[in-house]
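SEQUENCE AND FOLD
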Amino acid sequence: MGSPLSPVIANIFMEHFETTALQTLSQRPSLWLRYVDDTFVIWPHSKPDLDHFLAHINQHHPSIKFTMETEQNNSIPFLDVLVTKSPSGKPAHQVYRKPTHTDRYLHYRSFHHPSVLQSVPNALIRRAHQLSDADHLDQEIQHVTTALTSINEYPRHKIQSKTPANKPVANSTPEENQPAATPPKQTIVLPYIGQASHKIQRILQAADIQVRHSSSNKLHSILYSHKHKHPNHKKAGVYKIPCECGKVYIGETGRNLETRLKEHRTSFRLSDWDKSAIVKHAQQHEHTIEWDNSHLISIMKHWHTRRIREAIEIHRHNTVPQDSGLYINDIWKPLINKYPVTPPPPPPPAPPPAQSIFVFYTKNILKILRHIAERLI
């Protein structure tokens, strides 16, 4: 996972899986539709045959297992659609919401650009037209309208019962026949700060510059953690533990540094000198270990490479009495001594101090004006 090819490869594999699994059955579903890992199946045979079908596809590959949900009261949800079997035999469909759904969306009073706020009802109305049949469309639009006006405080006139203009429900016009929009010369992203943003946007649009707005007030600025973060503590490599006397301990670990430091702390608590040279040194001389200043010198995954780097760093540092690691021939020592000792990483920046609203807006406006000046020069 993580590769851009992962979804493509997964789809290719699932297509092969479906072809081979369905071809080896005597009784097959009359309809098999799959979207990623969700499958919609119409089974025209008996319930025991359906159980046999599920067992068959679950035995086809050891890593692919299916679970099954059958219809309840002639209805079954599939993705965001609730499919219902009508008395006439024609399937009906409408928007499906889980029982835990709260109908809470981006609140109308939240500090966002009007286009962002307007996109919420537009998207919900569009979804109503896309997923609801004619018998359920009015009911869905009424539900959306009630949720937006009563819970999220949207004005009634902001909610259109029809789809937004120039945005058809389906691609009724082929892409090659649609007129190509003329792209602007430049696009700029600015923080949204209220009325000043609208004035700046009009000025820039006159110069054929498209403006996009971002929100500068986010939960991250309120819920900022003051605790120092050490992202490299979750990685393996060669590490350094300093002592207050100026000496250090150099070690290597194939796990993450955080786990290795916990083991050193356990050795300190148990006075287990055989498992930690830095603990032995500190407790023998009554020194303090600077645990918070411990850090990775180099991130390395391969064991042999870590051992070589560990031996090099032991030679370069003023270490506590410890194993010298792998043997280094004297011919390499002048080259090793040529380069300075790796400095510790800088501490993470402190959180910004609390500022008044006036200072906040002033700084943002100045930032915007500087940004505009650079773009227009």
Remarks:
- Residues 354-362 have pLDDT under 50 and may be disordered.
- The two ends are 44 Å apart (CA to CA).
